[in-house]
Amino acid sequence: PWMRSLFLLPAQLLGGIVAAALVSCMFPGPMDVYQTRLSAGTSIAQGLFIEMFLTALLVFVILMLAAEKHQATFIAPVGIGLALFVAELA
Questions:
Q1: Considering the entire predicted model, what is its pTM?
Q2: Are 56 and 90 in contact (CB under 8 A)?
Q3: From the CB of residue 76, how many other CB atoms can be counted at a distance below 10 Å?
Q4: CB distance 36 to 50 below 8 Å
Q5: C-beta neighbour count of 55 within 10 angstroms
Q6: In angstroms, rounded to a whole number, what is the distance separating the alpha carbons of residues 88 and 66?
Q7: pLDDT digits over 19-72, tens only?
Q8: How far apart are CA 58 and CA 16, in angstroms?
Q9: CB within 8 Å of 61: residues ≥ 6 apart
């Protein structure tokens, strides 16, 4: 595990940097337009709770659909995608 993490961590960092560079090339100009903000009636504590709840929901769906080996595991990406879609809508 230690040797694998020595290769995995730099690969993840490099992948994030490359992805950020690609987004910067696709959308030139200032990036202040793409800021995520809470709605006017939502406090910071409520926003934090919503984020924690939806992240827990997504992790639960992944664990129940993808980590558990079953005959219906082939359809797991559909359920994970729907859970991610619902989390992004909120």
A1: 0.60
A2: no
A3: 17
A4: no
A5: 11
A6: 20
A7: 999 988 998 877 766 677 888 999 999 999 999 999 999 999 988 888 777 776
A8: 21
A9: 79, 80, 83
